[in-house]
Each structure stands twice: as C-alpha cells, then as structure tokens.
C-alpha cells in the first residue's frame, strides 16, 4: 500500500528521478541499485540506504531482490 501523505525529501526526490529515467523515452526504467544512486547522485552509501528505507516504508519503492530496488508508484502523478 502506498502512503499518499508521504513527502519525499530532496535526496529521495533525486533518487525517484533516477528510477524514472527512461520512462518518457520508452526505455527500460524503474530499477536501480545503491551503486547506481551513488554514482549518478554523488551521495554516500549510508545516506542512500537511509533514503531508500523511507521510500520503501512509504511504499513508493520496493526491494525487488538483494541490492535491487524497483519503483512502485508516485501518488503525486495520479
């Protein structure tokens, strides 16, 4: 269930943007691992993990596999 009242912080917003890359170009999109966030956003791993925990707790992102996260839904887009 997606928490519609959740408001992502700036770091989480940047991570959501990474997950959404390629969606408009009809390319594969929606998946990322912490290393991709680290490289693309120049953020330390501990901050990435903290931000991912918030996004997964809110239901916007889910852990698809070990070390792989999948975009679920951004209720602001509905």
**Beta-strand share of residues:** 5-15%
Count helical runs: 3
Tell me about the biggest sheet? 3 strands, antiparallel
Low-confidence stretches: none
Number of strands: 3
Radius of gyration: 12 Å
Give, in order, the helices and strands: HEHHEE
Strand order of the largest sheet: 1-3-2
Q: Kindly report how far apart the N and C termini lie.
A: 15 Å
Instruction: Output mean pLDDT.
Output: 96
Name the overall outline: globular
Coarse structural class = alpha+beta
- State the share of residues found in helices, binned by percent: 40-55%
Q: Which assembly state applies to the chains in this document?
A: single chain
Quick overview of this protein structure:
With 78 residues, the protein is α+β, with helices and mostly antiparallel strands.
